[in-house]
Amino acid sequence: MIITSLLDTDLYKFTMMQVVLHQFPAAQVQYKYKCRTQGVDLQPYVDEIRDEVRQLCALRFTDEELDYLGSMRFIKSDFVDFLRLFHLPERCISIEKSASPGELDIMVEGPWLHTILFEIPVLSIVNEVYFRNTQLAPAYEEGRARLQSKVQLVRNDPDLKEFRVADYGTRRRFSKRWHEEVMVTLRDTLKENFAGTSNVYFAMKHGLTPLGTMAHEYLQACQALGPRLRDSQTYGFEVWAREYRGDLGIALSDVYGMSAFLRDFDMYFCKLFDGARHDSGDPFQWGERLIAHYRQNRVDPRTKTLVFSDGLTFPLAIELAKRFAGRCITAFGIGTNLTNDLSYQPLQVVMKMVRCNGQPVAKVSDTPEKTMCDDKAYLAYLRQVFEIPAE
Q1: Could you give all domains of the chain from N- to C-terminal order, each with its CATH number?
Q2: Residue limits of the Nicotinate/nicotinamide phosphoribosyltransferase domain (predicted)?
Q3: Do 297 and 382 form a contact (C-beta atoms < 8 A)?
């Protein structure tokens, strides 16, 4: 069994889920899966994936896990009480062979509150099932050598005392076993340079700091849940601030692209939020634009955190750290390059929300291939409303 704990997921799933419980308990959503890697045949493993998901849906939170969640300052007791009764509903997920060669059709549909935790473990299952069937003798020694070379890049550079890197690699990991080894190695070798992990299970098990705030699906859902489409981004930020009262203050910047984000992220939000997270487009341009935006709004960027998390490698993260040193606080979340770097081509798998309350929702990324929407007319309308140039 690949997933043995419902905590084996990213922290931002719980922080968003708490908002859903308190603000949008009746919302209905639909998620669709996609593999962006060409030439991968997952169809032989569909039954194995189904079996793993069936076991996932049988899991419940333990008292120890709930006590751990409840110890976090921003997790409220009524949310913990809800989780005490929670399980993932198997009726809400379908896994079929696609008409397209090699591909799978995975769909999740149902109440947002009850389906939000599917995404990360399902993607982890797809990855691990694929790799355990195609790599029967995993190149762990190669992976360890690559991991040590990354560690040495940080330890051998005296200018990186303030460098902070975190693991964001649960969804695309080679395996759970390898993920855990990476976590322990980083904890023991990078020490203060290792900020923590997005994975709540490993954070609890190994005494690491769990990290995360919001993901794209939250701001996407606000397209259907807010008062009007043009205000959906500011509505999402306001609801988040109302829920967390200054905690978890990193805003996601790329659901509508950086230009639209800066138009909405006015002086009020600049002062209210602790910083922002980059997840598409050129990271250097993004950082320069955000620092200039803070200055224009009379906010000292040296007091704000810029979180970089888009396809990072250690050399790129280090280059970014040096570029912005002394100009802001930087943090780096590395995913696939940490948890699936054993010489094999990783799977670029995603599961994105495509509808909320029956209405299409979309993310219009600064990286065009990351845009995902199943309604072209709605996507065109969204671009018009947010003044996003056509690709």
Answers
A1: 11-136+351-358 (3.20.140.10), 140-339 (3.20.140.10)
A2: 163-389
A3: no
pLDDT at 215 > cutoff 80: yes
pLDDT tens for 265-302 read 999 999 999 999 999 999 999 999 999 999 999 999 99
Q: Rounded to an integer, what distance in angstroms lies between the CA atom of residue 119 and that of residue 52?
A: 14
The string of pLDDT tens digits covering residues 30-65 is: 999 999 999 999 999 999 999 999 999 999 999 999
Q: Tokens standing for 217?
A: 């699906």
Q: Residue 186's closest CA among 176, 195, 177?
A: 195
DSSP-derived 3-state class of residue 250 = strand
pTM value surpassing 0.90? yes
CB proximity list for 151: less than 8 A, separation 6 or greater:
185, 186, 189, 190
d(CA 275, CA 250): 5
In DSSP notation, 131-168 reads: HHHH-SS--HHHHHHHHHHHHHHHHT-GGGTT--EEE-
Are 324 and 304 spatial neighbours (Cβ–Cβ below 8 Å)?
Answer: no
pLDDT in tens, 106-155: 999 999 999 999 999 999 999 999 999 999 999 999 999 999 999 999 99
Helices 216-225 + 232-244 axis angle, to 10: 110
The CA distance from 85 to 81, in Å, is 7
Q: Return the half-sphere exposure (C-beta side, CA atoms, 13 A cut-off) of residue 84.
A: 11
Q: Are 172 and 123 in contact (CB under 8 A)?
A: yes
Angle at alpha carbon of residue 311, lines to 128 and 295, rounded to 5°: 145
202 touches 360 (CB < 8 A): no
Strands 359-360 and 349-356: antiparallel
